[in-house]
Design goal:
The protein contains five helices and six strands; from the N terminus they run βααβαβαβαββ. With about 150 residues, it is of the alpha/beta class. A hairpin with a 2-residue loop joins β5 (about 130-135) and β6 (about 140-145). About 25% of the residues are buried.
Length: about 150
């Protein structure tokens, strides 16, 4: 089972609190980030955030909650984790020692569809590495994580 971590949700309605999961998943799937995530995954139920706390604005950054992340990993028992964005990458690199694929956040302005397609291809095999796919102008590079 694959698990995807994003940084945090944002909503003026739920700001400072938790967003009920069914509602958040529907909003995620319809969002610009969700449209891009469809290149990477088929089931949005594998998506989580690094914190249950919701930001009021799209540029808001909430601090990752290590206990929240650990509880999700313990409950879901993934074989592979995909960390979307630098914040998720940092948190999951420290909290998870299994297979980890780090990619740019789906809202990243320079991200190309090609990178997510390459990530999906990697995941289709018996993926058991700890790597990051980095977006460069006109290309994607693979970086081994420490």
């Amino acid at each position: 089972m694959t698990l995807v971590f994003l940084q945090n949700a944002w909503s003026p309605l739920y700001a400072g609190n938790a967003w009920p999961r069914p509602s958040w998943l529907r909003a995620l799937e319809r969002s610009r980030s969700g449209q891009r995530l469809k290149l990477l995954i088929d089931d949005f139920d594998v998506c989580e955030n690094t914190t249950p706390k919701v930001s009021a604005v799209s540029s808001g950054i909430e601090v990752p909650d290590a206990d929240h992340i650990k509880a999700i990993i313990a409950a879901r028992q993934p074989k592979v984790i995909i960390a979307c964005g630098k914040q998720a990458e940092k948190a999951l690199s420290e909290l998870w020692d299994g297979a980890l694929l780090c990619v740019p956040h789906p809202a990243n302005r320079v991200l190309t569809n090609q990178l997510y397609v390459e990530a999906r291809t990697l995941l289709a095999s018996e993926f058991n590495q700890r790597i990051a796919l980095r977006q460069l102008r006109g290309s994607v590079i693979t970086e081994t994580l420490q």
